[in-house]
């Protein structure tokens, strides 16, 4: 609950965490603590693990809340070509796009309403990141956008939600021919990154894979 309140008391802060405005991991230094946000690096490590490319990609970002804002900052840092921030309330998408474009010093983010997606139907295939809580348990039969034509534009769909492990967004993406992933690996890797920072080590890929399989089994058992 103090992810933002603690920042003024830190000795230093990771640049991405500073932009996000929240930390979830503190690492002891000689004269205090350095703050990190491992959620977004966790998402990036998860995408790398799944073979999902970010650099040079046009990305559709669904949502304009705090998580979507953090994802937009991550996409900028990791070299995405352009992002389209789609949200039910256009004003919120506008606000995030303006902030992100300020960091980018160019028009990197375009705000759009959810119903405006047809303007992107130019034959391109997009990476789409679902950064809302729509479809989360127990409302598992909902998706931010239901239109079949929208999902035909998606090459890879990444849902931040991990429960359920197969969201409506993911099902729609696969039915339209795209690949779909959920947020359980993001949850895993944000914890792994914190552990690595605390212990100054690198967790092996095979160990991460083994932990991930255990997490999947636990989630499937309920």
What does this structure look like?
- It is a single chain.
- By secondary structure, the protein is an alpha/beta fold.
- Helices cover 40% and strands 19% of the residues.
- The longest helix is centred in the last third of the chain and has 17 residues, at 205-221.
- It has helices at residues 15-20, 39-49, 66-77, 90-104, 148-151, 168-175, 184-199, 205-221; strands at residues 12-13, 25-29, 32-36, 58-62, 82-87, 109-113, 126-130, 154-159, 179-181.
- The protein is globular and about 55 Å long.
Give the key terms.
six-stranded parallel sheet; 40% helix; 222 residues
Helices and strands in order:
Layout: E1 12-13, H1 15-20, E2 25-29, E3 32-36, H2 39-49, E4 58-62, H3 66-77, E5 82-87, H4 90-104, E6 109-113, E7 126-130, H5 148-151, E8 154-159, H6 168-175, E9 179-181, H7 184-199, H8 205-221
Parallel strand pairs: 1-3, 4-5, 4-7, 5-6, 7-8, 8-9
Antiparallel strand pairs: 2-3
Helix pairs in contact: 2-7, 7-8
Low-confidence stretches: none
SSE topology string: EHEEHEHEHEEHEHEHH
The major β-sheet equals: 6 strands, parallel
**Oligomer status:** single chain
Radius of gyration: 18 Å
According to DSSP, the number of beta strands is: 9
Counting DSSP H or I runs of 4 or more residues, the number of helices is 8
- What percentage of amino acids are in beta strands? 15-25%
Shape: globular
């Amino acid at each position: 609950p103090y992810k933002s309140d603690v920042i003024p008391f830190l000795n230093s802060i990771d640049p991405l965490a500073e932009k996000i405005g929240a930390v979830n991991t503190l690492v002891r230094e000689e004269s205090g603590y350095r703050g990190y946000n491992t959620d977004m690096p966790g998402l990036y490590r998860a995408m790398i693990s799944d073979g999902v490319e970010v650099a040079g990609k046009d990305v559709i970002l669904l949502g304009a809340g705090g998580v979507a804002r953090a994802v937009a900052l991550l996409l900028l840092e990791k070299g995405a070509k352009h992002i389209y921030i789609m949200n039910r309330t256009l004003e919120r998408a506008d606000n995030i796009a303006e902030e992100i474009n300020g960091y980018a010093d160019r028009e990197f983010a375009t705000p759009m309403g959810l119903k405006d997606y047809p303007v992107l139907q130019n034959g391109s295939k997009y990476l789409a990141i679902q950064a809302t809580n729509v479809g989360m348990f127990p409302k598992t039969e909902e998706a931010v956008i239901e239109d079949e034509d929208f999902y035909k534009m998606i090459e890879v769909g990444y849902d931040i939600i991990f429960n359920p492990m197969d969201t409506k967004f993911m099902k729609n993406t696969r039915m339209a021919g795209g690949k779909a992933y959920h947020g359980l690996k993001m949850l895993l890797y944000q914890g792994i990154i914190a552990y690595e920072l605390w212990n100054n080590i690198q967790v092996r890929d095979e160990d991460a894979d083994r932990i991930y399989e255990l997490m999947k089994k636990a989630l499937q058992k309920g």
